[in-house]
Structures are given as structure tokens and as C-alpha cells.
Amino acid sequence: METTLAIIKPDAVARRVAGQILQRIEEAGFQIRAMRLVRLTRAEAEGFYAVHRARPFFGSLTTFMSEGPVVVLALQAPDAIGKWRALMGATDPAKAEPGTIRRDLGTSIERNATHGSDAPATAAFEVGYFFPGIELA
Ligand code: ATP
Ligand code: MG
Questions:
Q1: Fold assignment, 2-130
Q2: What is the residue extent of each domain of the chain?
Q3: Is there a catalytic annotation at residue 52?
Q4: Best label site of 22, 76, 100, 129, fewest CB within 10 Å?
Q5: Whose CA is nearest to atom 21 of ligand 1?
Q6: Which residue's alpha carbon is at the smallest distance from atom 29 of ligand 1?
């Protein structure tokens, strides 16, 4: 069993497709271990995406991620990290496979509906970033 951190980004929450995304998560067989609705400050978004701080899109990305509420989830399944990234599809919705969340619900390479951890070490950091010191359900 593996746990990954998923975020339903501000674009998807604002467009009222969070429920659709949660349904896809449940139908794919993930167990939801923890879930919160939270509005990130700019500083919190910068801390979360610190690995990208040298990228040209860092300012725009952290402004976007703090523009409205997000739904943050800890998802558990066998190979949860890869399984969730496959369900999301490629970063750029235009390049994502048909039927993936980003292809169906994302609108640009930045406003791409969801986030997923990319490796066990980042998943551990990211789950701890949002769910520190609490028992996961
Ligand atoms: P995430 O980490 O959000 O799951 P990812 O791992 O597919 O996405 P990363 O390379 O980690 O992609 O980029 C983090 C986020 O930064 C992307 O999801 C997207 O919102 C934004 N982003 C990535 N590349 C660009 C770009 N070229 N221009 C604008 N925003 C971008
Ligand atoms: Mg990433």
C-alpha cells in the first residue's frame, strides 16, 4: 500500500467539478485517508511548490494556487502515486490522454485541475504539509 497527496486545484473547485473528481477517485478504488478544503496563502503555496522556485512559472503558479479554495486529499492504494498520476494525465491538458481528469477538466498547462505527488519522498513531504501530526483515517 502507498499513500499520495492529491489536490483539486482552485480552477476545478471554482468551476464546481470537485464532486466529479472525487467520484473518479472513488470509482478508481482509492481509499480517502484524509480530506480538507483549504485556501492557501501565497506563502503556503510557495512552501508547497518550493521545489519549483527557480522555474519561470513559479510566481504565476503560486498566485494561481492561492486564488481560491482547494481540496486536499491523502489517497491510499497499491501504487497510489503512479495510479493517481495516470488518472490525472499529462501536465498539459492538451497532451493528456482522452478520459483523464486533466484532459476532461483542465483548461491550460497551469490551470490543470489537479495535483499529484511524483515520488515516495515527495508524497511523504506533501502529506505531512497538509496533515501534520494527525491520525489518518
Ligand atoms: P503537479 O506537481 O501539480 O501534480 P506535474 O507534476 O504534472 O503537476 P510539474 O512539473 O510538477 O507538473 O509542475 C507543477 C505545476 O506547475 C503544474 O501542475 C502546472 O500547474 C504548473 N506548470 C507546469 N509547467 C508549467 C508551464 N510551462 N507553464 C505554466 N505552469 C506550469
Ligand atoms: Mg509535480
A1: Alpha-Beta Plaits (3.30.70)
A2: 2-130
A3: no
A4: 129
A5: 110
A6: 110
Catalytic residue among 9, 24, 83, 115: 115
Q: Are 71 and 130 spatial neighbours (Cβ–Cβ below 8 Å)?
A: no
Nearest to 72 by CA among 93, 44, 51, 53: 44
Q: Where are the beta strands (DSSP E) in the chain?
A: 2-8, 31-38, 70-77, 114-116
- Residue 66: left (phi > 0), alpha (psi -120 to 50), or beta? alpha
pLDDT of residue 62: 98
9, 41, 49, 55, 79 from 105: Cα distances, Å: 11, 24, 22, 25, 24
| pLDDT, tens digit (0-9, with 9 covering 90-100), for 98-117 | 999 999 999 999 999 999 99
| pLDDT band, residue 122 (cuts 50/70/90) | very high
pTM of the model as a whole? 0.96
Report how far residue 11's alpha carbon sits from residue 38's, in angstroms, rounded to the nearest whole number: 14
Note the residue count of the chain. Answer: 137
Q: Which amino acid is at 20?
A: Q
